[in-house]
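Hello again, I could really use a second opinion on something today. I've been puzzling over a protein and I'd love to understand its fold better. I'm sending you its amino acid sequence along with the backbone structure tokens. It would help a lot if you went through both lines with me. I've dropped the whole record in just underneath, so have a look.
***
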Amino acid sequence: MSSHDPTDWMWAQACALIDEAERMRRQFFRVSVSERTQAAWEPPVDVFEDEREVVIVVALPGVAAERVEVRTEPDALVVRAESRFPFAGSHHVVRRLEIPYGWFERRIPLPAAGLEAGTRESSNGCLVVRLRKTGWSGTT
């Protein structure tokens, strides 16, 4: 098959669209089984790692940092809170609603390295959690 074959291109485009649709479904419409029985959504995350630490960035626009619960488990970091609807009780008509609201929970798998609590900060609408690797001495 040629790399210019329209069938190859269409197949690649279809697979990319299916992947994007699945990512969006997981992000915005996942039903969670937890203490809260309400529908949940998953905020997007980025995970960075070097020899000293693992840094997790969770996009939480509009969520107050003090309302976010962060818990470490043996193999995951769990981030949980509620994104409140900003115009609840108002008489505004919704013309477009793309930002997810309500309770969310995100379980972020952690690498198999030994980790301990580091810092937690809120920056530009994101929660940034740093986990230090245990046993790292800082010398090479």
Notes: The CA atoms of residues 55 and 69 lie 17 Å apart. The chain has a mean pLDDT of 82. The beta strands are 45-49, 53-59, 69-73, 76-83, 102-109, 115-123, 126-133.
